[in-house]
Design brief:
Helix content is 52%, strand content 10%. It is mostly helical. It has a three-stranded antiparallel beta sheet with strand order 2-3-4. It has a two-stranded antiparallel ribbon with strand order 1-5.
């Protein structure tokens, strides 16, 4: 087997962790099955040759769950799976602590909405906890190559020492993470910062 860079191995391990989490959630919430069914599969992967682990990561967790339970996938299950993926993977603000308060770089709520609109998203629906679902609007003849949906949490609550001027604010780190998420990691933090700077002039 060809030598593999340690950094790549670390990335594969991270993907495997995400795959395992998604498989367990899919079994529990989509197939109403015991998540333990997936544990044996995950353990067998952990002991498999490296190339087999890589191949397994190309499988969709919903297809693996279907095979493990012997249950055919329905359109309704696919819709619930897509909703699960959006809820599970949408970016969240980083944990709020004293360090966060010292390095908090405020971004107005309106600027976050402007970023989403710039990328072609529209508000779809809101939830009781203040979270809002934004959906990508399909543009005829344009290959957008962006995530179809994203959940945006409510603005972060300001803590002492952070002047808000009465505005609802997000931290810059969250907004940069959001733009990276929307573009599947193709947008660098520097480019995201420049876009945001242009929108907030």
């Amino acid at each position: 087997m060809a030598s593999v860079d340690t950094k790549d191995v670390d990335l594969i391990v991270e993907f495997e962790r995400d795959f395992a989490r998604t498989l367990r959630n899919t079994l529990s919430y989509i197939f109403d099955a015991n998540a333990d069914i997936g544990n044996a599969y995950i353990e067998s992967l952990a002991n498999a040759p490296f190339h087999e682990r890589l191949i397994a990561l190309h499988e969709s967790p919903i297809d693996v769950a279907s095979a493990l339970t012997g249950t055919a996938v329905t359109d309704e299950m696919i819709a619930r799976y897509e909703d699960l993926m959006v809820r599970q993977d949408s970016p969240r603000p980083r944990p709020w602590d004293e360090h966060s308060a010292r390095v908090f770089l405020p971004v107005p709520e309106k600027a976050v909405a402007d970023v989403l609109k710039l990328f072609g998203y529209e508000k779809s629906e809101g939830y009781g906890d203040g979270t809002v679902l934004w959906q990508l609007v399909k543009r005829e003849g344009v290959d957008q190559n962006l995530r179809p949906r994203v959940l945006i949490p409510p603005p972060q609550v300001a803590v002492s020492g952070v002047a808000t001027g009465g505005q609802q604010l997000y931290d810059l780190s969250f907004v940069i993470d959001l733009m990276s998420y929307l573009t599947f990691g193709r947008l660098s933090p520097e480019a995201a910062f420049l876009i945001l700077k242009a929108l907030t002039r």
